[in-house]
Amino acid sequence: MDRFRVVETTDALISGFHAAVDAVARERRFFTFLEAPPLTKSEEFVRRVLMGGGVHLVAIDSEDQVVGWCDIMRSPREGFRHAGQFGIGVVAPFRGVGLGRRLAELAIESAWERGLERIELVVFASNARAIALYRRLGFEEEGVRRKARKLDGDYDDDLMMALLRKY
Amino acid sequence: MTTIERAAVKDVLSIKEVLRKTWHDTYATLLPRTAIEGITARWHAPELLTEQVQDPDIYFAVARDGDVVAGVISARRQDDAIVVDRLYVPPQFQRCGIGQRLLESSYLAFRGAQRVRLTVVAENSKGVAFYTKQGFRETVRISEDFAGARLENVVMERQLQTPGDVSASKGKSS
To answer: Are B139 and B173 in contact (CB under 8 A)?
Structure first.
């Protein structure tokens, strides 16, 4: 039986987070980038998220390997600090066991606790599985950028979704 | 006589009450009261439940005992599996077979699915025992720090019988 833990991302886990992002990016389907940015950028990103009052969680297996993540980056700009950008991923072999959902639910609860009122994301319209999860979490569609991506000859739309804190 | 029916929009407030009470009953010793209130207010908001009841991709059903909602299930299809997102039977209606009937109604709603998957909190021993009796086996454990408490979620799965494989329901899940 597999055992996983969902924890806040510590410095020791950043390289694992980076490797997980890279693995998902290389599937070429889900992200705007096709491989992870340099490790130093990932380190900066995680620290900026956490220092800025956002949320950064990873799911790790029993050997502390990162198999998924969820982050909510709070906007640093005045007038937008109540809003956060949502990101999530689970590496391929560990999909379909509910890890993404656990990560997302925890990150969202944690964001509300930290005073966020709006969580927004952009997802490719072809990513049905992610969209189904976001809808279940209460995200609503706010707009579409048509033919936003053209990759390997195929077009894809960008779907903008957001979740508002209601209570 | 308890009947199982698809949930309707008029049931939403009764459903919300069942979810809220069952959450308090299940998590009272595991999570702070304020955390439970916050979670049930947000995750079981009437607008959200209304949307789910109307969503053609979700099987949302209730057990009715006269005018009273005596149980709730919501489930959906994901690849070859049925994922049961909720199954709640209020304490006074437990041990009457309602949970089993709700669960089995979801198998019929998604014919052709090969497995059923759900998540239960490890400390919810009544829940784990019930699902074990229904043929579910533990596949994954996910632990997390939540609202200042350490919770352990158990993912459980059972196979569904497929034609020509009558032993499947007794089979161990991967």
So the answer is: yes
